[in-house]
Design a protein that fits this description.
399 residues, mainly alpha
Length: 399
């Protein structure tokens, strides 16, 4: 029964903070994280550490739904014309963030390779929600927006695959197992292929069964059941649930004309689920660790920005995109939230204390900063690129 009360506290805290902090025009995810910090063991203690452990299933389901929705939004037919450039930009901004974070962590901050590559892999993730909300609010249009949307959709796919490889290597390093071509490459690649295959096969089965469910309620129940089964199988078989669920969503999006119906079927349950996930993530933030990782956390924030900006700038310029794109695209890729937080949770389970906890604390603290500054920076970039018209800017100010 205590879990029911804890769920109520989590939801009420999220709602209240979203209303209060929303007055400052900050993203909801920032409000939820702050709410979690306040009710968590580090501050008020309204939700205990034991309660957080008992509510882990909520985080697991929410992570699967985040990856599923991301996959549905990945429409390959919309990327035919600019596909090579989009793939190149995404690859290099991901590699840029990884190298910019991982290398200094080893050479300058003297952290272990396992810690460095795990944190570097998480650094590659980008949260599109805040940027896309700015685009919608100001009705931004132009080459920058056209390239931005598919890049942020592909980004998390690249990130999840990189994390799968790096986390496997990190686990081998921390366990003392021999590092060879099998541990470093073949096992991670096998897990990635298996995850892609599982998501694809189940996606094809789901598509064939969609027509059997005529009401919204039945379809929602069916989709949830598929998500639960795949999340269970992913854990049982040691596969990345994020990659499996992203593949499931992408399969439905690209091979079925009912993808929007499927997306709409889960829209009603996702907001409270995501709210609980972010509030619980904030509650797990151990503030006592912050003082121990201060400079590493600050370095992570700036190194990730440098890596994203450099990778985007040079790859977009090499692809002969317009100056408005290669100068400002990187600024719109700064927000970091859902996937990064989810991967940090997985890192805690893989990397022994205190390093796993340090990674999670760094990512959560950085998320708050990125989510506060990200929309402001994105708006500035779109204005500088000339993709927010003066009339839309003025209309937004009046409203």
């Amino acid at each position: 029964m205590q879990s029911l009360l804890d769920c109520a506290i989590v939801l009420f805290a999220g709602l209240i903070c979203a209303k209060l902090i929303g007055l400052l025009k900050l993203p909801d995810v920032t409000s939820y994280l702050i709410a979690g910090i306040l009710i968590g063991p580090s501050v008020l203690g309204l939700v205990s550490s034991e309660s957080l452990s008992s509510l882990e299933i909520i985080s697991d389901v929410a992570l699967s739904m985040i990856a599923f929705v991301t996959g549905i939004e990945l429409k390959f037919s919309e990327m035919k014309e600019s596909g090579p450039a989009i793939l190149s930009i995404t690859l290099w901004e991901v590699l840029g963030a990884f190298i910019a974070v991982a290398v200094p962590m080893v050479l300058i901050f003297k952290q272990s390779v396992a810690f460095a590559i795990t944190l570097g892999a998480i650094a590659t993730a980008t949260a599109p929600a805040a940027t896309l909300m700015v685009i919608k609010q100001y009705k931004a249009r132009g080459p920058l927006v056209s390239n931005l949307v598919p890049v942020v959709a592909l980004d998390d796919g690249f990130c999840i695959m990189m994390f799968g490889i790096c986390s496997t290597i990190a686990a081998s390093l921390m366990s003392g197992a021999d590092l060879n071509i099998t541990n470093m490459l073949l096992i991670p690649l096998g897990q990635i292929v298996s995850a892609l295959g599982l998501g694809l096969v189940v996606g094809l089965v789901v598509i064939r069964l969609l027509n059997f469910f005529k009401t919204q309620g039945d379809l929602t129940a069916f989709v949830l059941a598929a998500v639960f089964v795949l999340t269970y199988l992913s854990g049982k078989w040691g596969l990345s649930s994020l990659l499996v669920m992203m593949t499931l969503g992408s399969t439905i999006s690209n091979l079925s004309n009912q993808h929007m119906t499927v997306l709409n079927s889960v829209d009603s349950i996702n907001p409270p689920l995501f709210m609980m996930f972010f509030v619980l993530s904030g509650a797990e933030l151990n503030l006592s660790v912050v003082k121990d990782i201060g400079w590493i956390g600050v370095a992570y924030i700036f190194l990730r920005i440098i890596g994203k900006m450099a990778g985007t700038y040079y790859s977009a310029k090499a692809a002969k995109l317009t100056p408005e794109v290669y100068r400002y695209l990187g600024f719109a890729l700064l927000p970091q939230a859902g996937v990064a937080i989810g991967l940090s949770l997985i890192a805690v389970r893989i990397i022994p204390a205190p390093y796993g906890e340090m990674i999670r604390t760094i990512v959560l603290a950085a998320t708050i900063i990125y989510e506060i500054l990200g929309p402001v920076v994105a708006k500035w970039a779109l204005v500088k690129a000339g993709e927010i018209s003066p009339s839309n800017l003025a209309a937004s100010k009046r409203s």
